[in-house]
Amino acid sequence: MNEHPTGDPGRHRTADEGREPAPAAEDTGRLRERIAAELGRVRERSLGLTVETLDEAELVAQHSPLMSPLVWDLAHVGNYEEQWLVRAAAGQEALRPDIDVLYDAFENPRADRVNLPLLTPDEAREYNDRVRARVLDSLDRAPMESGPALLESGFVYHMVIQHEHQHDETMLATHQLRRGDPVLPGLAAPAPRAEAPPGPAEILIEAGPFMMGTTADPWAYDNERPAHTVDLPAFWIDTRAVSNAAHMDFIADGGYDDPRWWSEQGWAWRTRSGKRAPAFWHRDAGRWWRRRFGRVEPVPPEEPVQHVCHHEAEAHARWAGKRLPTEAEWEKAARHDPATGLSRRFPWGTQEPGPRHANLGQRLLRPAPAGSFPGGDSPTGVRQMLGDVWEWTSTVFAGYPGFRAFPYPEYSEVFFDQGYRVLRGGSWATHPTSVRATFRNWDHPVRRQIFSGFRCARDAGEV
After folding, report:
1. What is the per-residue pLDDT across 403-425, written as a single tens digit (0 to 9) for each?
2. What is the pLDDT of residue 6?
3. Nearest in space to 240 (alpha carbons), one of 350, 100, 146, 368
4. Strand, coil or helix: what is 440?
5. CB of 457 closer than 8 Å to CB of 322
6. 3-class DSSP assignment, residue 42
7. Shortest CA distance to 235 belongs to which of 311, 327, 368, 104?
8. For residue 305, what are the β-bridge partners?
9. Looking at domain 28-177, which of 1.10.1060, 1.10.286, 1.20.120, 3.30.70 is its CATH number?
10. From CA 311, how far away is CA 418, in angstroms rounded?
11. Which tens digits make up the pLDDT trace of 301-311?
12. I need a surface site. Which of 85, 149, 235, 440 has the fewest CB within 10 A?
């Protein structure tokens, strides 16, 4: 995920905020309790991916020029927490202003961070503990009802919690790129059995307006705001993400060697890179295999394909006679309830994500079979729109009408209109607090180390 949509065909109109149900407000006491609990849970996860799993040599190593050394991520989340929860929210003096520049993601490209005078793993852990003690000490005094916008409904705490979870997902991508013996469990929980998709392979989403984005969600980032009405023509969307088996068919039919299916940019990437399969795949003895966290295993045909870039997804969709959905189409299919006219927070409603809804939070350390989790269906019956794999859309990342950067432009605004493509829905590695039907992720169209897949769509007039 990123450290910190001009492409859809809809007409934007003034938002009718009455059509976006607001999440139930939490009592301030319970809100503080939840924040403290979530801070504890995310730190436990971060430590489990770093100092509790790998030795110092592995933590300070550059496992790929695409990624930071894991020790940088560990100290960075503490420094971000200090800047926003100790300095900005609590108004306290800085603990370590001298390291701010080391852990500034914009000042230091990932490939260069290994050469910085970083904190050691022990120093990073000790620093993070000191920051956390300050945060918890000041939490009870934070004015969350009538205070500044930064603190309203706990926004800045939610932002910091999500930021660390996002870096944990990034660290999982580093673990996948790392060479060496496995250090993560092979399977964190039993994989659910694949179930038949609900009804047909694709579902018609009727033409008409829906409420996109949010104004009310206290966990939402600036790029998810404001809520606004988008009017879309009718379209078809697949009920499931494209599976490994389907992508094997694309490969077997020569899809990687046929320029008809590729955009000009995509074909240039394909010929330059020489790629002919998803990342971490190889073929041996007539069978496809993959490397997953240091283990080599047969590619499961029933799982959604992952580790494909936007160009691969786009080419596969064309080969199948379809296309990638726009971001607006994806969101309408995920959350619009045609019976009520309301847009839901999650595809299934307002209940927080649980094990019956989606594969999130690295429970499985892999995608679940396509067609799983009927309890997470959208109002129109589209399945698995949250969790398993991030889904590429055709949309270029940009602000919504009325966008306002908050609380700093480097989270979203600096990435607008730079050719980044929007991904939606989260992956198996995304924590439930960091995903909702309005959440927007974005990346370069060539990125494959992320846990990305796709589903297809087509215009309603097509046969």
Report:
1. 999 999 989 999 998 899 999 99
2. 26
3. 368
4. coil
5. yes
6. helix
7. 327
8. none
9. 1.20.120
10. 16
11. 999 999 999 99
12. 149
